[in-house]
Amino acid sequence: MIDASTFLRRALLADAIFSGVAALGFTFGASAFAALFNLPEALLRETGLFLIAYTALVGWLAARPSVPKPLVLLVVVGNAAWTVGSIALLFSGAVSPNIAGELMVVAQAIATGVFAELQFVGLRKSERVVAA
């Protein structure tokens, strides 16, 4: 366990808020977003469902004064992988979003990459180990 710096806790909280809004939108508005972005409804709904669990985890981490370093590293690596995966999805040909869909995927990939970087910086500011 490490003491979570204020910077780390705020970066995690911002991620939880952003992810929570996306989770609700994609879970309950998948059909509307599918039509708006020309993306598969199932992809959006399943993404939303995943983000519900992710939001709970990241929100829980943000609320704790000390956090398990490996769990925070998992969030950082997961965010970095999500960023790369989102861009790879556009180039894969597996989906054919319209311009609005492409912009949405790129925007959320950038935001997720920023969260990964902020959380990594926050983790480095939190290196003091808490005695168990």
UniProtKB/TrEMBL annotation:
The chain crosses the membrane at residues 12-37, 43-63, 70-91, 103-123. Keywords: Membrane, Transmembrane, Transmembrane helix. This is Integral membrane protein.
